[in-house]
Specification:
Glutaconate Coenzyme A-transferase, 2 domains
Length: 421
């Protein structure tokens, strides 16, 4: 393996190119910083960038780079949210399973890929480590691939392994991976976790999302048996359950005994746990988020959240009115998968009220809000006030059930509003 500097490797990038890189801890910041430095020197222009949710460095969306960089993200993280809402950056609405096909089909061009990879193994492979997402599709289509080799990247299996021969240029830069530990749980989080955990049967295959609610749910599963993971992601919170044998994947039909995700979000404890751990597979989003693959497992529990849900059951999870907040993510993928899984349980779990005292259960969605999960797919809805099942229920029954788990201070308002609809 011959190394060159980031500055030398970035000469592969030309004005007008479409670039892609991995999400979360997999984003190769050293290469991204070198790309921005080329812009500062006036060497490139009209560069198109796409990625999923990232954290940390994202100077390419600063106003001064308008016309030089164009970001079209598949999922909007906090580091690019203001720029996206201001129109400096943009967003491609899609379920995450489709991000891979959008690139493979050519609907989104791909000239170059930036990666952060592990040290090579004896077979001539490196690993993408904590994030695979739609990179296999991008790697297939790219003219050039620049890899930042980082000794801190864990060696993960599944679709994370790629041959060194596919990489155009290697850059050595070691940097600790970004970490994200769990936040303290509130009383509301714990109450939601208890209500949701009661719905999860032994032998379930779980989707685990980001945030306090999944953490609160996992904290309640210590007495469960034979759980499995097939998810977009998982966090440090699964490790005690795996070590205790609660999560063992024994009831899964696909990848039995394996813990499957397409990216990881956590601390060094998680990164050390997955390093050279053949029980963990980090796979292509086209596989992890395929509703057909998801549904092939029994008792799939899809645990997702919402910004707001109306009294008919429509779920908005990507925007606040017309302002994009995040993205559709994999919510619809897993809600469909759980719906068609034998014994599957699709769950929308959220606090009943915002930090500003506004009800998250609303008579109608805010004008301009996106419907991520249609009411036809919504079954269990959980708040700290309880859990209700909308499956097979009429519009009037749905309204009554949702009002029953709304915050007590909001129920009268919702009842009056519903009568006027």
């Amino acid at each position: 393996m011959d190394f060159i500097s980031a500055e030398e490797a970035l000469k592969l990038v030309h004005s007008g190119d479409y670039l892609h890189w991995p999400c979360v801890a997999g984003a190769p910041e050293h290469l991204i910083e070198a790309l921005v430095a080329r812009a500062d020197r006036g060497e490139i222009n009209n560069i198109h960038i796409s990625h999923l949710y990232t954290e940390g460095y994202a100077d390419y969306v600063l106003p001064k780079y308008q016309g030089i960089f164009h970001l079209d993200s598949f999922f909007v993280g906090g580091n690019v949210r203001k720029a996206t809402q201001a129109g400096i950056a943009d967003h491609i609405p899609c379920s995450l399973s489709e991000s891979a096909r959008i690139v493979r089909s050519g609907a989104m061009p791909c000239d170059g890929v930036f990666l952060m990879v592990s040290e090579p193994d004896e077979e001539g492979y490196v690993s993408l480590g904590t994030s695979v997402d739609y990179m296999p599709a991008a790697i297939e289509k790219a003219r050039y691939i620049i890899a930042q080799v980082n000794k801190h990247v864990p060696y993960c299996y599944g679709d994370a392994r790629i041959p060194m021969s596919r990489i155009t240029a290697f850059v050595r830069h070691d940097q600790p991976l970004k970490e994200a530990g769990p936040a303290p749980l509130s009383e509301i989080d714990i109450a939601i976790g208890k209500h949701a955990a009661k719905l999860i049967p032994d032998g379930a295959t779980m989707q685990i999302g980001i945030g306090n609610i999944p953490t609160a749910v996992l904290a309640q599963l210590g007495d469960h048996k034979n759980l499995g993971i097939h998810s977009e992601m998982f966090t440090d919170d699964v490790i005690p359950l795996i070590e205790k044998g609660v999560i063992n994947g024994s009831c899964k039909k696909t990848d039995p005994g394996k813990h499957v995700a397409m990216f990881l979000k956590g601390t060094k404890k998680l990164y050390d746990f997955v390093d050279h751990n053949q029980d963990v597979l980090i796979n292509d989003v086209w596989y992890t988020n395929s509703p057909a693959v998801i549904a092939s497992n029994p008792k799939v529990v899809a645990l997702n959240s919402a910004i707001e849900i109306d009294l008919s059951g429509q779920v908005c999870a990507d925007s606040i009115g017309t302002k994009i907040f995040s993205g559709s993510g994999g919510q619809l993928d897993f809600m469909i998968g759980a719906t068609y899984s034998d014994g599957g349980i699709p769950i929308i779990a959220m606090p009943s009220i915002t930090n500003k005292g506004m009800s998250k259960i609303v008579p109608t969605l805010t004008p301009g809000a996106g419907v991520v999960t249609p009411r036809t797919l919504v079954q269990w809805v959980v708040t700290e006030q309880g859990a209700v099942n909308l499956y097979g229920k009429s519009l009037q029954e749905r309204a009554r059930l949702l009002i029953s788990i709304a915050h007590p201070s909001q129920r009268e308002m919702l009842e009056k509003a519903y009568l006027q609809l």
